[in-house]
Amino acid sequence: MAAPLPAPPVRGIVRLLNTAGGPVLCLAGDVDAGAVASFRQRYGAEPVPVSAVDAGSVTALSVAGRDLLQDHLDVARRGGRQVPVRHPEPAAAAAGFRGDARPGAQPR
Questions:
Q1: Single pTM value for the model
Q2: Exposure of 87 by Cβ count < 10 A (0-12 exposed, 13-18 middle, 19+ buried)?
Q3: What DSSP letter does each residue of 75-96 carry, written as one string?
């Protein structure tokens, strides 16, 4: 019997950090479906009303990563929160989102 194949290396990460200003959604590296699945396994599937998003170290953002990010921004928008988003321009353009969650804000 052959040994099981090792899991593919994780190239991206998504975490919730508790800060004095409230929870911050942090994304870094190549945020693919595996990174999103790991996040959901650790924190649950429901989006959290975050106080900020730090995606400044994102090198690539998959559809699953974009959806996770947008879900968290939508929760903030519905709560009337304006959420600052730190992001590198290439990731923002690829993701098609803008850096806030103002009521009525739409992706670019």
A1: 0.74
A2: buried
A3: HHHHTT----EE--HHHHHHHT
- Over residues 37-52, the pLDDT tens digits come to 999 999 999 998 899 9
Among positive and negative, which fits the CA dihedral 33, 49, 108, 11?
A: negative
What tokens does 13 get? Answer: 């990460």
Closest CA to 54 of 93, 26, 81, 96: 26
**At residue 39, what are phi and psi to the nearest 5 degrees?**
-60, -50
